[in-house]
Amino acid sequence: MAASTSIAVFRTEARLFAREPGNLFWMSVAPTALLTILGLIPAFREANPNYGGLRVIDLYVPVALLMAMIMAGVQAMPPVLAGYRERGILRRMSTTPLRPTALLAAQIGLHGIAMLGSAVLAIGVGRLAFDVALPDQFAGYALIMVLTALSVLALGAALSAVARNAKAAGAIGSVAFIMMMFSAGVWIPVQAMPDLLQRIVSLTPLGAASLALGEAAGGGWPSWSHLAVVVVWTAVLAGAAVRWFRWE
What we know:
By secondary structure, this protein is mostly helical. The chain is 76% helix and 0% strand. The relative contact order is 0.14.
């Protein structure tokens, strides 16, 4: 009974999710569009000795993956959950056999699927259009992607917990969005940052993830210190979300 109810909630939320083409574009298409624009710049397709012989476009494939996660977990999900609370939907659900946790699980699952789809698209376009090599250490690459997605979704849940309404969630999410875009290397690849700034950024979940993805792409196992940073942030943010989340 519980499983069938959860499936029904997921299907309903999926239909509502598909009615937001703007969110779908920013989550699934915009990161790859940015990657494509950068790839069309001739200088970005040339090997750079400052980046260990890599090209700028090689560095921006993992950046596109992280950008998709930020769009989904920080920009898209918090306003939806905060809006449900603002309109009393969660409170009404709590009085029925349908528990609000089913709605939360559906939202996290849908945004997680959007992240996966965007990742496949970015990696595919990078490979086919710009000859970006596939990750040599695929298992490590996949592991850091999953851990980072969980971290970003945990942050999104924490933002949903502290936001009083959808408008506030959007405002808080925008501040977090700018900071995370920088730490993910959207404007300056983390590998190209000065050493001191790189060390500082590596203490953030997106900065550590960017460096770990680069390590796995080159064939090495992601540094345990980078993995630890992402795991610790995920645990802290998930704990904050659980502690602060309100159904009404």
